[in-house]
Amino acid sequence: MILSILGLSVLLIRLGPAILRSRKSAAVPIGSFDVSVIVPARNEEANLDKILSSLLRLQVREIIVINDRSEDRTQEIAEGFAARDARVRVLEGAPRPTGWAGKNWACQQGALVATGDSLLFTDADTEHLEGSLETMIALNADLASALPYHSNTSLIEKWMGPFHMLVFISSSAFSKPRRGSLFAIGQYLLFKRAWYFQQGAHEAIAASLADDLDLAERCLELGGTYSLDRSGRIFRVRMYASFAAFIEGWKRIFRVGFQHASVLKIMEIVVVIACLTESFRFFRATPLETLMALAGLFILGLAQRRYGDFSLFGVLLAPLGIGTFVYVSASALLDRILGRELRWRGRRYKLTP
Prior knowledge:
Elements: H1 2-20, E1 35-41, H2 48-56, E2 62-67, H3 74-84, E3 88-92, H4 102-113, E4 118-121, E5 126-128, H5 132-138, E6 143-146, E7 149-150, H6 155-158, H7 161-170, E8 189-192, H8 193-198, H9 211-221, E9 226-229, E10 235-237, H10 243-257, H11 263-276, H12 287-304, H13 312-316, H14 318-338, E11 342-344, E12 347-349
Parallel strand pairs: 1-2, 1-4, 2-3, 6-9, 7-10
Antiparallel strand pairs: 4-8, 5-10, 6-8, 11-12
Helix pairs in contact: 1-11, 1-12, 7-12, 7-14, 10-14
């Protein structure tokens, strides 16, 4: 009973504001912005058309695609866009130096040739929405990030709403950003240029596989301002094309994210899962426990609509999403304890337990 009460309280505190927040964006001036967009791209032939098309609809100074030693048609597709629009520049990435993670090295190279007063680092699997840049610029932060909206096409993806809401809760997405408790995502990092270089650029976190969190933590540590847009209306993303890739990709994210985990967040997730699963104990749960669990599922259902193309059936089949979250968490933790090699984008990294 106590776990159910605590779990429902966490859901109300964390997801309630997101449900009640107005869907209307603040009025901001529309026009051209002195923004350089930097897109690190390694074997992204399947994604480049969508992201570059969406970026070209925004009023940006330039779009720099760093071809990070790709082995597919990434270079060819990027150069095709460059031939049609002078704002697109293609940079062939240099060999990765020792001690650098691949993405960080690619971003660093792009930043060094960028000319805008603001630098937007974004992944190739994103689609940027109309009005997004105006909204983010209006935050006037040294560094700003945003919660994603998940584009889902397969049935299993549409059922993963509870999984993603648990990810948001465990990663402080709805908490006030502060050192040791903040959400940032590498798919959207908007820097003021002067601050980016003042805090050491990507070179300051060269070896990090959690560049988003480490850059945001560093921003706050050095006295900068950090803002997070929680509207779900800045960009869309489909991170993985299959459920197997979904599992492996999130295992990597969870594994590198453990270094930012706190005891409080772990406790919050435990009580939330305990609360939600009560409704599936059938006759073993008390009527009040079942009622609180159903209320928790109702909150999940309302919240997930803001952040992805999720189906209501995902809430009705909540044990699937919750079970996936538990499995991915346990597998990532085991990999970390055993010191297993991490593979990402065809490269191998050795992480300490």
